[in-house]
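Quick illustration, no need to memorize.
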Amino acid sequence: MKKRIFSTIIAVGASLILFLGENACGFGTITAHASEFSSDSITIDNVYTIPDGYDWCTYYVVVATNNTGKDIAIGADFVAVDGDSQVLSQVHDYSEAVKKGQQFILYGQFKNEDIDSAKNFDYNLKVAETDNCTYSSVNLDAAKEVEGDGLQVQATNYSEHDIQGVGVRTVFLKDGEPVAFDTVNIADVGYVFHGGSTNSQVVGINAGQYDDYIMTYTSAGNTSSADF
């Protein structure tokens, strides 16, 4: 089984590059509200539409890379629209700290009962510079579970300071196609991850058959600077 943790994509040219999986529905739009960011500063590496396997919800997952040259906080408004472009459902996601050059995942989780007549998905990104990124203070390892379908992910906070829990997000792939999505938070108590601490979680318990995955993580200090 291959693994691609924290992989980066090289931007080609000055324009925004969109790579859409076969199951993706529609294109996302980027809005950079801070003047130092241009529309090609966030590279969209892949977009996936992934059912949860229980017919309860659908994930619209955006895999992207921070090419702004700065550490950022980033939020996304996701919408599902019908054939007349009427919004059926809107959800929000954000990451408080993404290091420059780092790949990350944002996603919209839609209840299927709310999007029965959905024909498309879309999103809008809001980006701001932050000095709250602690990505370099954390190490993450992943290993296949001996029993079951999931991955055991272990994080260590190598700094002396408490930080927010490590947010791990994973797309599971089979023959290049998305089959599952899952997310976990690794912390000691609630969302606090103590300095020098090591902890673990299992992600993708119900992922089923997969032969590859894309895993990203984000980590932020205890001082919140995002307003998304």
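Residues 1-35 have pLDDT under 50 and may be disordered.
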